[in-house]
Design brief:
Number of helices: 7
Structural class: alpha+beta
Radius of gyration: 19 Å
Shape: globular
CATH class of the largest domain: Alpha Beta
Helix content: 25-40%
Largest sheet: 8 strands, antiparallel, barrel
CATH topology of the largest domain: Alpha-Beta Plaits
Strand order of the largest sheet: 1-3-2-9-6-8-7-4
Number of strands: 9
CATH architecture of the largest domain: 2-Layer Sandwich
Distance between the termini: 26 Å
Length: 261
């Protein structure tokens, strides 16, 4: 099992040619953790203790956005401005300021609650983002992850489909907010994750129903094209967890975070 710290130690900026980052693409290192159901309280306490230690020690070099799913998974998105960030110890400043012994102890407390841990680098392609104007000031308390494992060699087709979906939503004035993330480095390169935010679960269900009602035959046909490129599909529901996140910015309002993450 490769932990987040081990994964960061193995990576170097030599992988930069594999992912071309620019203003339209934001890279994230995604640390995904499965926690034992009976240890959720202990795990979140350990995460909060770790975050508190970083705040107390004035560690400002670390940033991550936490999400929790209904099936006891936690996903942490660590923004990467450039691959050189991974060529050095990401937690180096934290270890130095907190103290190695305390740092290792707090990491061990989290590890004791985990069933498994997976790390990957995803590219958020902002060109495919869609957000209806009516949702601008809506507080999002529900998040849906649609995880599509794409067939090898279909990257260009998947990108084209993403653009088609965005155009279709605009054409029919669909009320919805989503973002597209593509796995660039990890166990299943090419996987697409569509992250959709809504006010609550009932609102999401309503918006999903309206999407296919309004798009009709066009929407169904595009969905069939999408299915043809998939090997597997998984779904997760949950929400963004500001309380478990580390955001070294002055403004920590959820709407701002949700747009960035």
């Amino acid at each position: 099992m490769i932990t987040l710290i081990s994964f960061l130690m193995l990576l170097s900026f030599s992988i930069e040619p594999l992912v071309a980052q620019n203003d339209d693409v934001q890279l994230y290192l995604i640390n995904s953790v499965k926690v034992q159901p009976s240890k959720v309280v202990a795990y979140e306490k350990a995460v909060n203790n770790f975050n508190a230690s970083m705040r107390t020690a004035n560690v400002n070099s670390i940033e991550y956005y936490a999400n929790a799913t209904a099936n006891y998974e936690y996903h942490y998105a660590l923004p990467i401005d450039n691959m050189a960030q991974l060529d050095k110890s990401y937690f180096g400043a934290a270890i130095k300021k907190i103290g190695e012994e305390k740092f290792r102890k707090e990491i061990a407390a989290m590890d004791a609650c985990k069933v498994e841990e997976v790390n990957a680098i995803y590219a958020h392609v902002k060109a495919f983002d869609y957000s209806h104007a009516s949702l601008k000031d809506t507080e999002m308390n529900f998040r849906k992850w649609d995880v599509y494992e794409c067939k090898p060699g279909t990257e260009d087709q998947v990108y084209a489909l993403a653009a088609e979906w965005k155009a279709l939503l605009k054409k029919h004035d669909i009320v919805r907010r989503h973002a597209y993330y593509f796995e660039a480095i990890g166990p299943k390169v090419g996987t697409l994750i569509v992250v959709t935010d809504a006010k609550d679960q009932a609102t999401y269900a309503q918006q999903q129903q309206q999407l296919f009602e309004k798009t009709g035959a066009e929407g169904l046909a595009l969905w069939r094209k999408t299915e043809a490129l998939m090997l597997d599909v998984k779904h997760r529901t949950g929400r963004f967890r500001l309380d478990l996140s580390v955001i070294p910015t002055v403004e920590k309002s959820q709407p701002v975070v949700a747009e960035k993450e």
